[in-house]
Design goal:
binds magnesium ion; alpha/beta; binds 1,4-dihydronicotinamide adenine dinucleotide; seven-stranded mixed β-sheet; 21 strands; single chain; six-stranded mixed β-sheet
Length: 503
């Protein structure tokens, strides 16, 4: 016992020494929380504390919103041209690419995702800044064809001060999806990263001043949902809230935003169907099913977590998928061969483990089902496959957000569509078939914001991202993404020199 206590003391002393102290970024400066409070950031693979960050509360939120408000109304920002904003975004993209190795390493340590995936994420974040750098100068107004001697214009203007609250599964990439279109549009923002994964966003904050962004335009505050997220959403000077995360918090945000009628966009994940017809390429199908649900440890809002398989291939499919799942290389995320790291946190580990137990009562287990015995510490979960799942089971209805697949048989096209749409969610879906006519009929019948055919998960900054039904509203990425940060102003210029002449 004494030696165990000693070992724990030594471990925490070691992690304390290694823990870097970060500050948050308000009004162009790195600052502590007003309260002086900090909280630890954990490496989910080693369970060690790797950093300490400020714990923002309402006072810090007020300070950040005041900075964003001042920057929106006066100083350099309202005078910048679209070209200026575009160039700032290009410089940010360039800097991210320059620091890519460091950022990927940090993202990997903080989130637990495999290093190779972290490298893709960082590259995608840079691409997002480039894309909206180009888009800044492509925001167009209109001349409205009114039946009078007048010039009627529609002007596009920034929506104002944006609160942006993001999750932990793609930390820097989600920051990019939020900040890039907002800056391109001329908004000012307060971004709150998830409490589990604030490090790459804080690192990125250090690039903003050098890229030429005036103080107060982008503020990055660290803290928890209740303490920092909620006061940010409620703040009367905030005009728009952009949120990615759980459905429960999404619904709470809509209610909190109602009092001041803020614009809200929500991306709330789902229970996305991945549909396999018997005529699909079998090898590609097995790969697609695994990739769809296990990439990023299954911590993906669009995870293909309901795998619908047509009866003639069902048994063979379950066998082949399970055999391959058992061979997925789980391990330390910094090793390049690793295909699956730990879940992000103890809390997420507990949540996913609980669903594994629920699944064992609701369906049959084909692979995984627990914690891998090979890993001595870290929040690792085995890739888990349940089959003969009824679509009414909890594991088929509730978002698990971990590597847990539910395989459901179907009899024909109509049955597949019925099961696929029988969910409160509607973020994504995929269809696998060699019959393009059938595949496209299914595409049209699916109530989901993103549908892939013979693939699952490829995501491009050029294409719209967002859900139907309870997966949220609004769209990110592409021209849709910047729309959510713009207002439309109608301007009427009278070209008649005579008085109106009514009275
Ligand atoms: P969450 O929705 O609680 O957290 C996401 C973000 O919202 C974090 O930045 C958090 O600090 C903030 N937040 C939490 N409560 C808030 C409040 N009352 N007001 C304002 N902001 C608040 O998600 P959590 O707890 O990390 O994960 C729970 C489940 O949510 C997951 O198991 C998964 O099902 C889902 N989720 C979905 C995501 C998606 O991409 N759509 C991402 C992360 C989680
Ligand atoms: Mg939560």
């Amino acid at each position: 016992m004494a030696s165990k206590a000693k070992a724990i003391a030594a471990k925490s002393a070691k992690s304390k020494a290694a823990a870097r102290k970060y500050k948050m970024y308000i009004n162009g400066e790195f600052v502590e929380a007003r309260s002086g409070k900090v909280f630890p950031v954990i490496n989910p693979s080693t369970e060690e504390v790797i950093a300490e960050v400020p714990e923002a509360d309402e006072n810090d939120v007020n300070r950040a919103v005041a900075a964003a408000k001042a920057a929106f109304n006066s100083g350099a920002w309202p005078q910048t041209t679209a070209q200026d904003r575009g160039r700032i975004l290009f410089r940010l993209a360039e800097r991210i690419r320059k620091e890519a190795a460091h950022l990927a390493d940090l993202e990997c340590r903080n989130s637990g995702k495999p290093i190779v995936e972290a490298e893709y994420d960082i590259a995608d974040a840079a691409t997002c800044f480039e894309y909206y750098g180009g888009m800044a100068t492509k925001v167009l107004g209109h001349v409205n064809p009114v039946p009078d001697n007048a010039l009627s214009l529609s002007l596009r203007e920034p929506i104002g001060i944006a609160a942006q609250i993001i999750p932990w599964n793609y930390p820097l990439l989600m920051a990019a999806w939020k900040l890039a279109p907002a800056i391109a549009a001329g908004c000012t923002c307060i971004l709150k990263p998830a409490e589990q994964t604030p490090l790459t966003a804080l690192e990125f904050a250090g690039y903003l001043t050098e890229a030429g962004l005036p103080p107060g335009v982008a503020n990055i505050i660290t803290g928890f949902g209740e303490g920092a997220g909620a006061p940010l959403v409620k703040h009367p000077d905030v005009n728009k809230v952009a949120f990615t995360g759980s459905g429960a918090v999404g619904k709470a945000i809509v209610k909190m935003a109602a009092d001041t009628l803020k614009r809200v966009t929500l991306e709330l994940g789902g229970k996305s169907p991945n549909i396999f017809f018997a005529d699909a390429d079998f090898e590609a199908a097995i790969d697609g099913a695994l990739f769809g649900v296990f990439i990023n440890q299954g911590e993906v809002c669009s995870a293909g977590s309901r795998i619908l398989v047509e009866k003639p291939i069902y048994s063979k499919f379950v066998d082949a998928m399970s055999a391959k799942a058992k061979k997925i290389r789980l391990g330390p995320p910094l090793e390049r061969e690793t295909k699956m790291g730990p879940l992000v946190s103890k809390e997420q580990f507990d949540r996913v483990s609980a669903y594994q137990e629920i699944g064992k009562k609701e369906a049959k287990l084909a692979a995984g089902g627990g914690r891998p015995s090979s890993m001595k510490h870290g929040y690792y979960v085995e890739p888990t496959i349940f089959y003969d799942v009824d679509n009414s089971a909890r594991i088929a209805r509730e978002e698990i957000f971990g590597p847990v697949a539910t395989v459901i048989p179907f009899t024909n096209e109509a049955d597949a569509i019925k099961i696929a749409n029988d969910t409160p969610y509607g973020l994504a879906a995929a269809v696998w078939s060699r019959d393009i006519f059938k595949a496209f009929r299914v595409v049209k019948a699916l109530r989901a914001g993103i549908v892939w055919v013979n693939h699952m998960q490829p995501t491009y900054v050029e294409a719209p991202w967002g859900g139907y039904k309870q997966s949220g509203f609004g769209r990110e990425l592409g021209p849709w993404g910047i729309e959510e940060y713009l207002e439309t102003k109608q301007v009427h210029i009278n070209l008649n020199e005579q008085p109106i002449g009514w009275y």
